[in-house]
Amino acid sequence: MQLFFFFSSFFSFFSPSGKLVQIEYALAAVAAGAPSVGIKASNGVVLATEKKQKSILYDEQSVHKVEPITKHIGMVYSGMGPDYRVLVRRARKLAQQYFLVYQEPIPTGQLVQRVASVMQEYTQSGM
């Protein structure tokens, strides 16, 4: 079992039932998280998520489940906090790079596509 886990963390492996192990891990992480909701209106959007204090050992104010990426794009998560922080940093960097090149904000759909590509790369590499 330990040998399989070692190899499954570096490559995309199929389980005996034919499923990708990394996808199963990702789905389990999301299932363990709190639900998140995004609502689009004609004059804006609302992002919301449940924020439970799971331990008295950390400051509740230090956990940010909704983050601004640009002035017009925000991000919310369900799942693992460290994974989310990596994606927030990457999304901000992608948005800044786009702005430096084109002198206009990155279109939301394009940023979503690029962040999804990052997530896919991490899933396939087992990181």
TrEMBL record:
One of its GO terms (cellular component) is proteasome core complex, alpha-subunit complex. Pfam families: Proteasome. It is found in: Cytoplasm; Nucleus. InterPro entries: Ntn_hydrolases_N, Proteasome_alpha, Proteasome_alpha-type, Proteasome_asu_N, Proteasome_sua/b. Residues 7-29 form the Proteasome alpha-type subunits domain. SUPFAM superfamilies: N-terminal nucleophile aminohydrolases (Ntn hydrolases). GO terms for biological process: ubiquitin-dependent protein catabolic process. Residues 1-20 form the signal peptide. Gene3D superfamilies: Glutamine Phosphoribosylpyrophosphate, subunit 1, domain 1. Keywords: Cytoplasm, Nucleus, Proteasome, Signal. Its main location: cytoplasm. The 26S proteasome consists of a 20S proteasome core and two 19S regulatory subunits. Belongs to the peptidase T1A family. This is Proteasome subunit alpha type.
